[in-house]
Hints:
Elements: H1 2-10, H2 16-31, H3 36-45, E1 65-67, E2 71-72, E3 78-85, E4 88-89, E5 94-99, E6 103-108, E7 114-118, E8 125-132, E9 139-145
Parallel strand pairs: 2-9
Antiparallel strand pairs: 1-3, 3-4, 3-7, 5-6, 5-8, 8-9
Helix pairs in contact: 1-2, 2-3
Amino acid sequence: FQGVAEGVLNRSDPRAGPALTLGKLHLFQNYYDNEPNKVAIWSAWNNLMGDPATAIWTAVPRVLTVAYPAAITSGANGLPVTVTIDGLPQAGALVTVFRAGLTQVSAVTGADGRVNLPLVNLVDGEYLVTVTGRNLKPYLGGVNVGDLVASVNYFSVVVNDDNIGSS
């Protein structure tokens, strides 16, 4: 147990798999010389801990407030997302937009709690929006893609600085 606790609480990787590996290493280092069979048995039993990619919470998970448009057009080229906790920006949150068979785009929020996920070739329908992070309660929402009554999208900028006319 000492190695697993060390892996979860004092290392930068909160996943169950790396913590379990460290636990097995501690078993080997501390008990193999005297009880090699028990090290093998306990190492095998420890594999029953579940999905190794599961992140383990090490504090009470904080609840996110996630803001983004409820709907965008199929011609949109990005989805702006803002993530806050108690009104303060949340840096380092992983934001993903997903639709099976069509797209999966992920990015991490900056110091301002914002990210703009680049989107291409959207088709009408619902896309899932998820936000996760260490000791953050996962957020799951959706954004609808389709025709809107009015839409403004950024495509390009042209700078006209030839001092002729209104430039």
